[in-house]
Design goal:
This protein is α/β, with parallel strands linked by helices. The chain has five helices and 18 strands.
């Protein structure tokens, strides 16, 4: 198996589906023209809400995978149909980061909730993978206050999709990165590549983003693909850290799209927004790596202790 070219996007999505659809279409066209076999998009790529109400109002239904939308289903599944058509027309695998999926289940307060859902499409336009984010993010600092649970329900299952250009793909989203048992479970289920589409805040990104991604790669011996949101999404509003990364199984950073390098006010340069990062990954993505997962406990005797 020869090298696989992938396109890893870094977006500054807006609270406008029309704007984001046009941007994603441009990047998919570019990826196809550069012979990429797979396009990776970040979390909430199709709509970046500016309020809880916008999150709920713009959520859509999504069927379970596998699913190929037929003619006339655009009204029932508008964003699903957009990505399906795009994948088929560009002959690309597309990891559609995540979208907000409507739900009939209410939260503990009796109010409506959504799911933060990852979607994966093959080059026929078929929805091959659907994953609902398990771990919901919360931060309360003087600089940033966010609570995903106010609008979102957690998922309750993991998903690995086989047969992709990057081998078997383990699906995760953003804050899932903090939990090593999730990545280990995906690896034990056969994943050779883990994805973390994200919209990290600037303070948490500066502290932990690259460190966590490299740790997940080393402990699972998987490739990591982490497409990220970046920059200021509306004037004076939410900002995302950026630094879309591809990490090798040994923890080495293979590519970095840049972003914020410290906790500063304002926006990043436009040159770091709305772009594709191209990486040629070697054929080893399909190689099975046998791991010894037996826990080894060191035992020390009194003679081991220096006097």
């Amino acid at each position: 198996m020869g090298p696989t070219r992938i396109a890893v996007s870094q977006l500054c999505s807006l609270p406008s589906k029309a704007h984001n659809y046009a941007l994603i279409t441009r990047l998919a066209s570019e990826a196809s023209s550069k012979n990429a076999s797979m396009l990776f998009l970040p979390e909430v790529c199709s709509f970046m809400p500016s309020s809880s109400n916008e999150t709920l109002e713009n959520a859509e239904p999504y069927p379970d995978a596998p699913y190929l939308p037929g003619p006339g289903e655009e009204k029932a599944y508008p964003t699903l149909s957009f990505f399906s058509s795009l994948a088929a027309s560009k002959k690309l695998w597309i990891s559609a980061g995540s979208v907000h999926e409507s739900s009939k289940t209410q939260g503990p307060d009796g109010k409506a909730r959504v799911y933060n859902t990852g979607l994966l499409f093959d080059p026929t336009g078929t929805l091959r993978g659907k994953y609902r984010k398990v771990h919901l993010f919360s931060i309360d600092t003087p600089a940033v206050r966010l609570s995903e649970a106010k609008t979102t329900l957690p998922g309750d299952s993991l998903h690995v999709v086989g047969g992709t250009p990057m081998g078997s793909l383990g699906m995760a989203i953003c804050y899932d990165l903090r939990f090593p048992y999730l990545s280990s479970s995906l690896r034990s289920s056969g994943a050779t590549t883990l994805i973390y589409p994200s919209a990290f805040t600037v303070p948490t990104g500066v502290k932990a983003w690259e460190t966590l991604l490299r740790a997940r790669a080393i402990e699972t011996q998987c490739f990591i693909v982490a497409s990220a949101q970046v920059g200021e999404h509306w004037k004076g509003g939410r900002r995302s850290y950026g630094h879309s990364l591809v990490v090798g199984p040994d923890g080495s950073v293979l590519a970095d799209a840049g972003g914020y390098d410290s906790v500063v006010e304002g926006d990043v340069e436009d040159t770091k927004k709305d772009l594709n990062l191209y990486v040629d990954v070697g054929g080893e993505v399909s190689v099975h790596r046998e791991r010894n997962e037996i826990l080894q406990v060191e035992r020390h005797t009194r003679e081991d202790v220096a006097n």
